[in-house]
Amino acid sequence: MPVNPNAKLVENLFAPDIKQEPTRAGYGEGLKRLGETHPNVVALCADLTGSTMTKKFADAYPNRFIQVGVAEQNLVTVASGMAAAGKIPYIASYTMFCPGRAWEQVRTTICYNDQPVKIAGAHAGVSVGPDGATHQAIEDMAIMRVIPNMQVFAACDAIENRKVTMAIADTGKPAFFRFQREKTPVFTTEETPFEIGKAQVYWEGDGVAIVACGPLVYNALLAARDLEAEGISCMVINNASIKPMDEDVVIAAAKKCGAVVTVEEHQVMGGMGSRVAEILAQQCPVPMEFVGVHDRFGESGEPNQLIEHFGMGVGSIKEAVKSVLARKK
Amino acid sequence: MQHLDDEKIKFLESTAQQIREDIIAMLLAAGSGHTAGPLGMVDVFTALYFHILRHDSANPQWEDRDRLILSNGHICPVLYATMARAGYFAPDELKTLRKFGSRLQGHPHRMMLAGLETSSGPLGCGTSQAVGMAIAARMDKKKWQVYALLGDGELDAGNNWEAFMLAGKLKLDNLTILIDRNNIQIDGMTEDIMPMEPIRAKFEAFNWHVIDINGHDFYDIINGFAMAKGIYEKPVCIISHNIPGKGIESIEFDFAWHGMPPKDAAQADDFLNQLRTLKGKIKSEHE
To answer: How far is Cα A147 from Cα A144, in angstroms, rounded to an integer?
Structure first.
């Protein structure tokens, strides 16, 4: 099985009983740990301390937590002011509302000022489920990555999200990182590398490169395993650092495989896959397929049902691989 | 705060006159920009930078400085002219306003000019940044004060009211905002565009302490800020009753001058003449 040994993934990668945990748990844990090591880290929340898992920090450090109420524009701008006064604010809401509702304030008061505010986007993607389209953020990476100074991340599981949460504390830069509500497989380990600006090869192959981010990386691995049995060799890359993106790994994958499929729980316009396409269009044009939401709103349903319905399930990834293979020169 | 006497008042008045002249000259050179708001706020800015604020133009990053946030960034000509006269940079640079390569951007940019606490222009979010600074200062037990200057027109924006609520909830007594109550905004008179009165009652309902001042009387301005510093367990809102275009009689109160510069050198000359003959019209009672 071509798992990259350097990725240090879990032993029971494809076991039906693989441990499941929501990525947001990684935020809660990472933030609490930062509280211990970083006296300047403060947390703010807009009436969603429980579901964003900010509560762990708020309970441990009540004097470093600010509850702003249902006021996302205030959440962003108060944090900007606190950063200007030497704090490292982590602000949390549902991704749809923050940064969704507060885009201009993020641009002007955080990014233009280059203040190190860390925007934790909870409940990203259609996998929010029954709440429906109003609460399903699938445009957030696009609107954040176009702003100068902003860094953007999408972790693949709870452990990696904890690493993201902690790694961005000391950058001195603004950051936006998105994560999900539902439990998803925990398939990385403490030893799995995460580094800002680096992509990681999780599965080795040379037929098609699947570049994925978020918990859908696991679906990409499942697809690669199935395709291997069909005689199709895939490389799977966890591309958690959306901005800055690891151009070297993306280009090397395109050169080696000659075809690329991107996978993200996001509109295919403007997101992670678009950035991959921007890089490859200039450096190494190859046939590409984009797995994600195609210019539609989400709707109510069970998370897995919606992932399937909007074409991001294992079957859809396999189809995309076969489709791009057919176009490969 | 420093001692205030008649001699200091005279100094503040002559400095304000100089800053008004600077504003006319820089707007003429820029060919675009805002006239009415900056002229109406000259006396407040002069009082702040030359009497009220703890700051050091030679060390703009001094950790214990008071923080001043300009929320309505479009009145930056008065900010720049005041900073130049206060020693942050040479007054010569004022004529680069809004020009390519200038540190004096059309709306202020913190990363370009030392001494700016934030970048502003998009309205309605200065108070919330000031609230953030005031929270941080309290957490760190710092003595510095946080001031935010707002236009009255930008009170239309909801972000402000979110911030007013939070400041009231947290009883941020190290925060003072000043509303430039000049009654004009781009499209007309504020009470026609979106009635704001009763402003005092609104702030009191949000658990703020409110002080009304005459924004063209240095004693009143300075006493207002002195009183604000003494208010315990409440943020303070100073409603500064200002005359837009103050000092140039022909444009005073006219909202058309919100976003216009003098149209040519002749008009600028006329404005300067009106300014120079101002003496006597608004002289202090102590002169």
So the answer is: 6
Same domain, A180 and A204: no
Q: Are A151 and A210 within one domain?
A: no
Torsion on CA atoms A53, A58, A59, A61, rounded to nearest 10: 140
Max intra-chain CA distance, chain B: 54
Q: Are A234 and A223 in contact (CB under 8 A)?
A: yes
CATH number, residue A212: 3.40.50.920
* Option in A82, A84, A86 nearest B118 (CB): A84
Question: Final residue of a domain: which of A164, A185, A206?
Answer: A185
Domains of chain B: 6-276 (3.40.50.970)
Q: Looking at the structure, do residues A294 and A233 belong to the same domain, yes or no? A: yes
Both A128 and A48 in one domain: the answer is yes
Residues A142 and A245 both lie in one domain: no
Q: Do A109 and B118 touch (CB under 8 A)?
A: yes
- Work out how many domains chain A is built from and give that number: 2
Quick one: A24 and A135 in the same domain?
A: yes
Q: Please, which residues bridge with residue A235 across strands? A: A209
Full domain range(s) for residue A103: 20-185
Residue-by-residue pLDDT tens, chain A, 329 positions: 699 999 999 999 999 999 999 999 999 999 999 999 999 999 999 999 999 999 999 999 999 999 999 999 999 999 999 999 999 999 999 999 999 999 999 999 999 999 999 999 999 999 999 999 999 999 999 999 999 999 999 999 999 999 999 999 999 999 999 999 999 999 999 999 999 999 999 999 999 999 999 999 999 999 999 999 999 999 999 999 999 999 999 999 999 999 999 999 999 999 999 999 999 999 999 999 999 999 999 999 999 999 999 999 999 999 999 999 999 97
A217 and A174 assigned to the same domain: no
Find the helix or strand (DSSP H, E) in which B256 lies. Answer: none
Residues A120, A222, single domain; the answer is no
Among A66, A71, A81, beta carbon nearest to B129:
A81
The partner residue sitting opposite B159, judged by closest CB among A73, A87, A89, is A73
Kindly report the CA angle at A306 between A300 and A307, in degrees rounded to 5?
A: 155
Query: B139 and A42: CB-CB below 8 Å?
Result: yes
Q: Could you tell me how many CB contacts below 8 A there are between chain A and chain B?
A: 99
The secondary structure element, H or E, covering residue B68 is strand B67-70
